[in-house]
Amino acid sequence: MEYMKITKTYFSETAHIVRKAYSERCRFNVHGHSYSWNISLESRKLNEAGMVRDFGDLKAIKAFVDLFDHSLVLWQNETNNIKEFMNDHFHRVIIMKKNPTAENMARAMVQFTKDFLDNKGITGLKITAGVRETSTGYAESMISDNDDVFYSLTDELSEDLSNLMSRYWDTKVLEGVKK
Ligand SMILES: [Zn+2]
What burial class does residue 58 get, using C-beta atoms within 10 Å of its C-beta: 0-12 exposed, 13-18 middle, 19+ buried? Predict the structure, then answer.
């Protein structure tokens, strides 16, 4: 069976803290990476334009990544002192319900993309999200229409995301995306 696969790459400069990481540098310091975010769509057939999907239709995914650009990503389990301080003094703070590892960022991206495509009525695609944190570290998350959705975007990102969305995202771009 023939499959076609297309991939688009987006970039962000993002800071985080990874509690429970083996490396003390990651565990105890706010630090940043030049992230690259890949989104891949696979299909068994092409549309009438000869494409798996035109990425021009998928601007919300670019907007999703842009949300992370020059943002600080914190785990919800950080102390209230830290979360309040960061939110009081910085504009772009994202609180994740899970530890902000490349794996969990990839899960958030794949779920966001699936929600977005489902809401647009686009089905039949296998979605892979890959997040590269360093030149040697890469995490991928995959989902297809046949998979049960075992988590949702709101499992990954806290409600604070909706505040950031409304502050920084073009609502037209997000039309059809579940809040
Ligand atoms: Zn890191």
Answer: buried
Host domain of residue 71: 4-175
> How close is the Cα of 15 to the center of ligand 1, in Å?
7
**Per-residue confidence (pLDDT) for residue 22, from 0 to 100:** 85
Domains in the chain: how many in total? 1
67-97 b/e (C-beta count within 10 Å ≥ 16 → b): bbeebbbbbeeeeeeebeebeeeeebbbbbb
What CATH number is attached to the domain comprising 58? 3.30.479.10
How far, in Å, from the CA of 134 to the mean position of ligand 1? 8
Q: How far is the CA of 135 from the centre of ligand 1 (A)?
A: 12
Distance, CA 100 to ligand 1 centroid (Å)? Answer: 9
Whole-model pTM: value is: 0.84
